[in-house]
């Protein structure tokens, strides 16, 4: 199977020894990596998720709270970058896994379109903080780890594959290679090739060339394949934009232009603007609890799927399929959720784009340190950090999606339908619904149902029954909110 980096089992006598304190702390050599791979991985992850610096302020600033207030896009950009930097550094130094964090897509939409219109912005962000505190309590009591341990191996592999398909679809959509057919078309077909059924324009060509270049470099096993492709396509995009004078809208969120002033001073005005319990006075206790539960569940299971998927691809799971030291990783994820509320940039969570860094060879938290450091630099160089267009970065997601699929598809017992059916649903529903959480929920419910229906209810751990019931409740929440 094609991979960018592999580790070979060695006896303690023949295993390479750490060369310095940095190597020993992050266990770089022990995990079959190198400092160069970790740096390349950290840089690749940063550039594949740098779009969040632009996208999160757009989503949150588009919302209006109950009192007609908008959040400042400039202040949101600072809060987004600051929180991503701090939480990713924390994950690298303490969690020691190559997983970066930033404001979670989906959760920010919930905050902007569901919470804020019913209360003030500080009230809405207070509910995000409460969700993060609840997640930390679940970790502290060991409940979150027990839930993850209850997931059978087949479903774990399906989660990884679903994430691979999901990020590949993200790559195709964000690049413009695939677009949504407008409702005015009156068709049941949801997506199409390009903007009108054809590939038109230079930006899409940049993506196609970038994808082909990435795949060629991967097949030839060139070190730094993903990062080389991102850099080369960014240069090409800058040249194409300057020569062809392409309309900014055709590039999407990020236009590949050298900024006139690459330095932008951060504005910390939103940091700490939080009211923990004010939202309950606005919407009532039941609706408030449902709002917190919505944020909690989305963050809880999105992160769970990402952690399992990225760790599996990085070969960090033990023989039982568990991630050693996972409680640290889960606790940091809970802290990130609360931190996002505290800085008013919405809940931060583990980013699936971290697989780009893993595909580049990252295996340790030092890659996250590199990514976090780049976010910290971006606090002052936001215009420069966001000049890499989606068309240059998204080929990495397509390539990594393939690598994940190739490395995991054979590990599922397709002959056992009680595993194969929920595995299949998990892996296809994630991209089809654009949600890791929904894919997990459907997979868990169907696995539990089929196990009971075939008389194998004893093999289902108690936490799986509990989680399946929670997901049934989760899918029913819109109806419950309407009646509250």
State the main characteristics.
globular; mainly alpha; two-stranded antiparallel sheet; disordered N terminus; about 475 residues; about 65% helix; single chain; 22 helices
Overall description:
This protein is mainly alpha-helical and 484 residues long. It has one domain (23-151, 181-396). It has 22 helices and four strands. The strands form two sheets. A two-stranded antiparallel ribbon has the order 1-4. Strands 2-3 form a two-stranded antiparallel ribbon. Helix 4 packs antiparallel against helix 16 (365-378) and helix 8 (153-175) packs across helix 13. It is globular. Mean pLDDT is 87; it is low at 1-12.
What would the principal axes of the Cα set say about the shape? globular
Q: Domain count, please report it.
A: 1
What amount of the residues lies in strands?
A: under 5%
Give the overall pLDDT as a whole number.
87
Query: Could you tell me the number of beta strands?
Result: 4
Report the major sheet: 2 strands, antiparallel
Q: Nearest-angstrom radius of gyration?
A: 22 Å
Number of helices: 22
Strand order of the largest sheet: 1-4
Element-by-element helix/strand order = HHHHEHHHHEEHHHHHHEHHHHHHHH
The level of helicity is 55-70%
The end-to-end distance, rounded to whole angstroms, is: 52 Å
């Amino acid at each position: 199977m094609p991979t960018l980096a592999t580790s070979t089992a060695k006896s303690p006598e023949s295993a390479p020894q750490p060369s310095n304190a940095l190597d020993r702390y992050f266990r770089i050599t022990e995990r079959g990596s190198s400092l160069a791979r970790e740096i390349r991985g950290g840089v690749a992850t940063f550039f594949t998720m740098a779009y969040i610096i632009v996208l999160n302020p757009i989503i949150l600033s588009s919302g209006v709270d109950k009192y007609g207030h908008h959040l400042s896009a400039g202040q949101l950009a600072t809060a987004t970058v600051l929180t991503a930097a701090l939480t990713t550094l924390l994950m690298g130094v303490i969690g020691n896994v190559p997983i970066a964090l930033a404001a979670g897509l989906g959760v920010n939409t919930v905050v902007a379109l569901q919470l804020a219109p019913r209360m003030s912005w500080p009230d809405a962000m207070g509910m995000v903080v409460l969700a993060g505190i609840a997640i930390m309590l679940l970790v502290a009591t060991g409940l979150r780890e027990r839930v993850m341990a209850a997931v059978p191996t087949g479903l774990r592999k399906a989660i990884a594959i679903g994430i691979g398909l999901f990020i590949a679809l993200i790559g195709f959509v964000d690049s413009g290679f695939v677009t949504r057919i407008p409702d005015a078309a009156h068709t049941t077909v949801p997506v199409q090739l390009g903007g009108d059924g054809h590939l038109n324009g230079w930006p899409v060509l940049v993506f196609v060339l970038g994808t082909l270049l990435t795949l060629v470099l991967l097949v030839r096993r060139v070190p730094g394949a993903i990062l080389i492709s991102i850099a080369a396509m960014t240069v090409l995009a800058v040249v194409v934009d300057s020569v062809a004078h392409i309309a900014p809208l055709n590039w999407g969120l990020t236009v590949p232009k050298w900024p006139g002033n690459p330095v932008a001073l951060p504005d910390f005005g939103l940091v700490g603007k939080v009211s923990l319990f004010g939202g309950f006075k606005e919407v009532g206790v039941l609706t408030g609890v449902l709002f917190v539960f919505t944020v909690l569940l989305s963050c809880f299971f999105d992160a769970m799927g990402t952690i399992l998927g990225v760790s599996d691809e990085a070969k960090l799971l033990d023989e039982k399929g568990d991630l050693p030291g996972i409680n640290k990783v889960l606790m940091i994820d809970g802290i990130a959720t609360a931190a996002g509320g505290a800085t008013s940039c919405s809940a931060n969570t583990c980013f699936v784009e971290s697989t780009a860094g893993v595909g580049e060879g990252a295996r340790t938290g030092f890659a996250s340190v590199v990514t976090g450091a780049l976010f910290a630099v971006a606090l002052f160089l936001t215009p420069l950090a966001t000049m890499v267009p989606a068309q240059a970065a998204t080929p990495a997601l397509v390539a990594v999606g393939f690598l994940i699929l190739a490395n995991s598809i054979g590990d599922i017992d397709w002959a056992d339908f009680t595993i194969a059916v929920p595995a299949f649903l998990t892996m296809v529903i994630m991209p089809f619904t654009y949600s890791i959480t929904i894919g997990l929920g459907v997979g868990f419910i169907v696995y539990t149902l089929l196990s009971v229906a075939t008389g194998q209810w004893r093999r289902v751990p108690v936490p799986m029954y509990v989680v399946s019931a929670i997901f049934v409740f989760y899918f029913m929440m819109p109806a419950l909110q309407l009646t509250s």
